[in-house]
């Protein structure tokens, strides 16, 4: 199974830390020290989860002449900030591409949804029900965010990414998916209350950030080791680590836990904020040209509800 191409879409509007200083007194220095975030993107009133996903899908197909949209036989969408819970992000992309009579699935496992979406593709490929898949991950966090919330209101950004995945290698530059491991730890700690989004009652709430921090650091490092050990690899065999883009301190803690130098981590949290399940995919899209033949890449994720996972790629 191969990732043939990846592309991202980001809204044009930039929200700097100074916006939150004016709004609720949080200083630029304080936000940087706590999160590493300098700015984030915010969708325009004309944009939403579906429109951003459609833009990302269009970009990835434009960049992939060997993967015409008529050859797509599976679409998997992922988001925890849906524009519509019935006409899902995957349906919207299918309609925009005008590809009929194929499986269309949407999934949500918080910020881990990227890997669960790819795992769904893995299953369809294994069963012989598809051979060329489009995965779209899109988050409209600002639609649900409360900017007055001094605990988490400054964390969130919007963005989307799309991945083209084939059962067979299409080009020498394809990334081979060596292994993928996902799991849930919803029975651990404050997984049921640490981060919630109840659309009927309120927006994104994070009352137990410390609990999220502790478990994110532990689980992303642990599952990275697990996926490497399953493939008889050492941590230092990893050329690039792309963690869930939640907090720069979490990334640095995971690197320290693994014994990896900071220059091997790919990060966009500084300029995009937490873009949810799209964050790691956006980072992969922006870093794709820097991955050389023989490089090994690990994407490791952790989400609210305490889902987690790691994927090992090789060029």
From TrEMBL:
<feature type="domain" description="Beta-ketoacyl-[acyl-carrier-protein] synthase III N-terminal">
    <location>
        <begin position="107"/>
        <end position="168"/>
    </location>
</feature>
<keyword id="KW-0012">Acyltransferase</keyword>
<dbReference type="Pfam" id="PF08545">
    <property type="entry name" value="ACP_syn_III"/>
</dbReference>
<dbReference type="InterPro" id="IPR013747">
    <property type="entry name" value="ACP_syn_III_C"/>
</dbReference>
<dbReference type="Pfam" id="PF08541">
    <property type="entry name" value="ACP_syn_III_C"/>
</dbReference>
<dbReference type="InterPro" id="IPR013751">
    <property type="entry name" value="ACP_syn_III_N"/>
</dbReference>
<dbReference type="InterPro" id="IPR016039">
    <property type="entry name" value="Thiolase-like"/>
</dbReference>
<protein>
    <submittedName>
        <fullName>Ketoacyl-ACP synthase III</fullName>
    </submittedName>
</protein>
<keyword id="KW-0808">Transferase</keyword>
<feature type="domain" description="Beta-ketoacyl-[acyl-carrier-protein] synthase III C-terminal">
    <location>
        <begin position="228"/>
        <end position="314"/>
    </location>
</feature>
């Amino acid at each position: 199974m191969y990732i043939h191409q990846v592309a991202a879409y980001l809204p044009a509007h930039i929200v700097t830390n100074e916006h939150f200083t004016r709004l609720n007194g949080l200083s630029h220095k304080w936000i940087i020290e706590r999160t590493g975030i300098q700015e984030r993107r915010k969708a325009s009133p004309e944009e939403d989860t579906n429109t951003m996903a459609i833009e990302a899908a269009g970009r990835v197909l434009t960049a992939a002449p060997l993967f015409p949209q008529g050859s797509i036989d599976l679409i998997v969408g992922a988001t925890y900030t849906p524009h519509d819970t019935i006409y899902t992000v995957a349906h919207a992309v299918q309609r925009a591409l005008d590809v009929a009579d194929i499986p269309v699935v949407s999934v949500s496992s918080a910020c881990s949804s990227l890997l669960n979406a790819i795992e769904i593709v893995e299953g369809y490929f294994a069963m012989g029900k598809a051979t060329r898949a489009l995965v779209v991950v899109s988050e409209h966090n600002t639609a649900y965010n409360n900017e007055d919330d001094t605990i988490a209101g400054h964390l969130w950004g919007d963005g989307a990414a799309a991945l083209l995945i084939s059962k067979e290698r299409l080009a020498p530059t394809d990334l081979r998916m060596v292994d993928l491991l996902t799991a849930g730890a919803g029975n651990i700690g404050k997984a049921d209350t640490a981060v919630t989004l109840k659309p009927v009652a309120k927006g994104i709430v994070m009352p137990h950030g410390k609990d999220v921090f502790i478990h994110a650091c532990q689980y992303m490092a642990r599952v990275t080791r697990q996926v490497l050990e399953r493939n008889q690899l050492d941590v230092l065999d990893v050329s690039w680590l792309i963690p869930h883009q939640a907090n720069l301190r979490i990334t640095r803690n995971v690197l320290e836990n693994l014994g990896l130098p900071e220059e091997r981590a790919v990060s966009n949290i500084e300029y995009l904020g937490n873009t949810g399940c799209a964050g790691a995919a956006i980072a992969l899209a922006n870093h794709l040209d820097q991955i050389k033949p023989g490089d090994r890449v690990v994407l490791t994720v952790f989400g609210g509800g305490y889902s987690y996972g790691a994927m090992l790629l090789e060029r």
